[in-house]
Write a structure and sequence with these properties.
Number of strands: 10
CATH architecture: 3-Layer(aba) Sandwich
Distance between the termini: 21 Å
Structural class: alpha/beta
Strand order of the largest sheet: 3-2-4-5-1-8-9-10
C-alpha cells in the first residue's frame, strides 16, 4: 500500500524548492506543466506527465519517492480539453480520473512508496484554504484532501519558507498525532524521512 501525501501552497510558496535536498537517485519528479526546477541540482524528471505517463512510471517501480509537480493541472488541462462538452458528466469523469490515480497509488504501489502531490491552493468564499480544482461542480464530486492522510501547507513570510502541518481552522492541513511539529522547515526530504520513521516504512529491509 503506497502513501499519497498532499503539499498545498500558492505559487511561489516554496513547494518545488522543498525538493532541493533529495539526491538524484532518491526521487522521480513527474512534471505536469514542464516547469523548470527552482534550483540547479539535477533530479530525475519526467516531462509532460499525464495520467498515462504517471501510471507507467509508477508501474516501473524504480523509485521509492515520487513527486507529481503541479498536480492541479491534471484537472485543469483535462477541463480545457473538454471545454466544448456540455453537461455535468465531464465533471464526474474528471473527478473519477483523479480519484482512480490516488486509488492506484494506495492499492497497487509497494508499501515503501510515497507519492507527493505538489498542488496549488485557493480560498473559498468562507475564507477556507483548500486544494485548487476546476470549480464547484467538481468539488461536489470530489474533496481532494479527503483522499490523503497527510496534507501540508507550504508558506512564506517573505524571509523564510516553511510547512504548516496542522489546520489553524482556516486550512485543510492535517497529519498524524506526533509526526511533526506544527511548523517545520520547507524540506520535503526531511518530511519523507520523518514519515518513513514514524510508520517504520522499509524497516524490515534494513535488517
Amino acid at each position: 500500500m503506497g502513501i499519497p501525501v498532499l503539499i498545498l501552497g500558492e505559487s511561489g510558496s516554496g513547494k518545488s524548492t522543498s525538493l532541493r535536498n533529495f539526491n538524484e537517485n532518491e526521487i522521480c519528479i513527474l512534471n505536469v506543466a514542464n516547469k523548470p526546477l527552482p534550483f540547479r541540482k539535477k533530479l530525475k524528471t519526467v516531462q509532460n506527465a499525464t495520467y498515462e505517463i504517471i501510471g507507467q512510471t509508477l508501474k516501473a517501480k524504480e523509485y521509492k519517492t515520487y513527486v507529481i509537480d503541479d498536480s492541479q493541472y491534471l484537472l485543469s488541462f483535462e477541463m480545457f480539453d473538454r471545454a466544448k462538452e456540455t453537461g455535468y458528466g465531464k465533471f464526474t469523469d474528471i473527478a473519477l480520473r483523479f480519484r482512480n490515480m490516488l486509488d492506484y497509488i494506495i492499492r497497487k504501489t509497494p508499501d515503501d512508496v510515497i507519492v507527493y502531490f505538489l498542488h496549488h491552493c485557493e480560498t473559498t468564499d468562507l475564507g477556507k484554504i483548500k486544494a485548487k480544482t476546476v470549480g464547484k461542480m467538481l468539488d461536489n464530486q470530489l474533496t481532494v484532501e479527503g483522499l490523503f492522510s497527510i496534507v501540508l501547507m507550504a508558506k512564506t513570510d517573505g524571509s523564510k519558507y516553511y510547512f504548516e502541518t496542522q489546520s489553524d481552522g482556516y486550512s485543510t492541513c492535517k497529519s498524524p498525532i506526533g509526526m511533526f511539529e506544527k511548523e517545520i522547515d520547507n524540506d520535503l526530504k526531511l518530511v519523507d524521512t520523518t514519515i518513513r520513521e514514524y510508520w517504520e516504512i522499509g524497516k524490515g529491509e534494513q535488517k
